[in-house]
Amino acid sequence: MWAFRTARIGSLLAATSVILRRCLRLGVAMAKSKFEYVRNFEVQDTCLPHCWVVVRLDGRNFHRFAEEHNFAKPNDSRALHLMTKCAQTVMEELEDIVIAYGQSDEYSFVFRKKSNWFKRRASKFMTLVASQFASSYVFYWRDYFEDQPLRYPPGFDGRVVLYPSNQTLKDYLSWRQADCHINNLYNTVFWALIQQSGLTPVQAQQRLKGTLTADKNEILFSEFHINYNNEPHMYRKGTVLVWQKVEEVRTQEVRLPAEMEGEKKAVARTRTRVVALNCDLIGDAFWKEHPEILAEEN
Ligand SMILES: Nc1nc2c(ncn2[C@@H]2O[C@H](COP(=O)(O)OP(=O)(O)OP(=O)(O)O)[C@@H](O)[C@H]2O)c(=O)[nH]1
Ligand SMILES: [Mg+2]
Ligand SMILES: [Mg+2]
Predict the structure, then answer these.
(1) Strand runs labelled E in 67-193
(2) How many domains are there within the chain?
(3) In whole angstroms, how far apart are CA 285 and each of 150, 281, 290?
(4) Which parts of the sequence bind GTP?
(5) How would residue 30 be classed by pLDDT, with cut points 50, 70 and 90?
(6) Among 74, 145, 185, 257, which residue has the fewest nearby CB atoms (within 10 Å)?
(7) Residue 75, in any domain of the structure
(8) What pLDDT digit, counting tens, does each position of 118-164 carry?
(9) How do residues 61-108 score in pLDDT, each as one tens digit?
């Protein structure tokens, strides 16, 4: 009797599991349409593991954008501060960015070596950075350009570059900062010759043809009494964004006995914030001061 019952339960269970399996198969077949195969056309764009992932953005045709929006020449501090505000937003909204560097119409964002954000898909990194940056540029425009309406929507191109070692990453950032220095020195003399000496752009270009750094410094000093080293750091060095612990003091209402109700007290707390620096990245000093950026766990 007992054996008969056990056999019956067994065959019932077997029948149920066959039905269940059929249903599941049918369900899966139904969920997959005949068009499903097009998924296979998607390319794998996973960034190589253990590499620094750098996303660099650059303003599209900003030569024209700067003209149309009356940017000051050679440097418009409103435009540079707006770029930095957008980059700060990118760092705060997205994940795993350990440092960013910007100058002119470009910003580079460095994702930590071991980031597994969106399974390290390059297209996700690039498009999320570019779209967050571009929407922030429009969103915050009025805060920096109070009297200058935004005349058309700006665009930013993006690229992803992988750097396999700390040295190559440091060299990449040094390259961008050296570019900032070379362009800024040239532009400072170029516009001084036009704005202060009345040369035409073609004449200014001719005057600077073949000149070396020392020559440009000399022209600035002897003709315009400008010591290039005293020009603002933001123009000469660009902007570095890093995470830093900042002590914040806020006045806060505290719970006290009824007779003291509503009293406020200063409360200090430490938060990690994105901080903008206009410092040198090429020498060792910066990396010694901020060892956590290249630390192994990154
Ligand atoms: N007047 C002024 N112009 C700026 C400033 N920052 C950037 N620009 C302009 O933006 C340009 C940026 O250079 P590029 O990125 O090489 O060139 P682009 O015109 O943006 O062209 P693509 O990047 O190739 O699309 C500079 O050459 C300037 O004309 C600024 O502070 N003041
Ligand atoms: Mg550009
Ligand atoms: Mg550029």
Answers:
(1) 97-103, 106-111, 156-163
(2) 1
(3) 40, 8, 9
(4) 58-63, 104-105
(5) low
(6) 257
(7) yes
(8) 999 999 999 999 999 999 999 999 999 999 999 999 999 999 999 99
(9) 999 999 999 999 999 999 999 999 999 999 999 999 999 999 999 999
Dist CA 266 CA 235 (whole Å): 37
Nearest CA to ligand 1 atom 7: 104
Residue 159 Cβ contacting ligand 1 at under 6 Å: no
Query: For the domain that residue 75 is a member of, what is the CATH number?
Result: 3.30.70.3000
Is 143 annotated in some ligand binding site? no
Provide the residue type at 9 as one letter. Answer: I
* Calpha distance 274→160 (Å, rounded): 22
Q: What share of the chain is helix, strand, coil (3-state, %, to 5)?
A: 50, 20, 30
User: Within a domain: residue 283?
Assistant: no
Cβ of 62 below 6 Å from ligand 1 = yes
Q: Say how many CA atoms lie within 13 Å of 8 toward its Cβ.
A: 5
Whole-angstrom Cα distance, residue 133 to residue 170? 24
Token pair in block for residue 17: 């599991």
C-alpha closest to that of 238 among 84, 134, 69: 84
- The closest of 106, 115, 104, 92 to 158, measured between CA atoms, is 106
ipTM: 0.99
Domain that holds residue 186: 52-239
Q: Is 296 helix (H, G, I), strand (E, B) or coil?
A: coil
Q: Mean pLDDT of all residues in the chain?
A: 91
Is 59 flagged in the annotation as binding?
yes
**Is residue 28 in some structural domain?**
no
In this prediction, residue 23 has a pLDDT band, given cuts at 50, 70 and 90, of very low
Radius of gyration of the chain (CA): 29
